[in-house]
Design goal:
By secondary structure, the chain is an alpha+beta fold. The chain folds into 2 domains: 150 residues, Regulatory protein AraC (Jelly Rolls); 101 residues, Orthogonal Bundle (Arc Repressor Mutant, subunit A), CATH 1.10.10. The two termini are 31 Å apart.
């Protein structure tokens, strides 16, 4: 299995469906933390612990130095942690996945890695992801930050081509994501984005596919759906007002677009967010 391809595939899927990033926990620990054994049916959880004694419950996985663990669907896990150093911290990422995805099927990420060396870049990337998740949950930059984390995460020793090749090191693609993010209420065109980042539409398409595994149109659509979900989650905005904020001429047009994109009506999603 080509590890880089599997990671790119995982990132592309999350970019197309950003709601699959179920949660990001990035916190300093100043008190003991205990969480009993539990499991998730369709979640891959990636954890990194630093500066603590104790470790993960459900197997011999002590927190030694800076340690990482990955829990695939239906694998029981929990915490029994005591912070021992100033700056002790816990990072946890939850991704809703499907069993057929290459990264899941081949269990790309190592189940447990104690005493990670050279972890500074990974910790820095995790803090960046945590800040984005906290302040802009549906930001188009989240998948880019997640891609950086996944590229640095320890992989299983059996993975082929597991060198730490950057997944997103193209400044123009990052600028394109920022432009899409800033114009989430508008149905911007590929030409407008390309002009903003000084590329031709063809160059933009090629470079976004190479870095993110999706086209500019898919990126625009994913961001607009994400923003619509964020607005629908607000209790102070009616669906008609959300439709207006998203630039649709009527609630009916917005509802058709939202249902076609997500499989549920805006009202149904508001009652039970996916």
């Amino acid at each position: 299995m080509d590890a880089n391809k599997a990671v790119r595939d995982l990132c592309a899927r999350i970019f197309r469906e950003p709601q699959r990033l179920q949660g990001v926990f990035a916190r300093r620990l100043d008190a003991p933390l205990y969480l009993p054994l539990h499991q998730h049916a369709s979640i891959v959880q990636l954890d990194l612990i630093s500066g603590c004694s104790g470790g993960w419950l459900g197997g011999s996985r002590p927190a030694i130095g800076t340690s990482a663990a990955v829990f695939y669907p239906r694998v029981k896990h929990g915490y029994d942690l005591v912070p021992r150093q100033r700056g002790a911290c816990l990072f946890s990422i939850k991704l809703r996945v499907e069993s057929g995805w290459p990264a899941v099927r081949h269990r790309l990420f190592a189940a447990y890695v104690p005493g990670i060396s050279g972890e500074a870049a990974l910790v820095k990337a995790l803090w960046r992801l945590g800040r984005l998740a906290e302040h802009r949950t549906q930001s188009a930059l989240l998948p880019a930050a997640l891609a950086e984390v996944l590229a640095l995460w320890p992989q299983d020793s059996g993975s082929e081509n597991s060198s730490r090749e950057p997944l997103l090191n193209d400044a123009a693609v990052l600028d394109a994501l920022k432009f899409i993010d800033a114009n989430a209420t508008k149905d911007v065109t590929v030409e407008e984005i390309a002009d903003a980042v000084h590329l031709s539409p063809r160059q933009l398409n090629r470079r976004m596919r190479a870095n993110l595994g999706c086209s500019p149109q898919q990126a625009i659509h994913a961001r607009r759906i994400g923003h619509a979900r964020t607005l629908l989650a607000r209790a102070d905005a009616s669906i008609t007002e959300v439709a207006e904020m998203m630039g649709f001429a009527s609630i009916h047009t917005f509802s058709r677009w939202f249902r076609k994109s997500t499989g549920v009506a805006p009202s149904a999603w508001r009652e039970e967010p996916l």
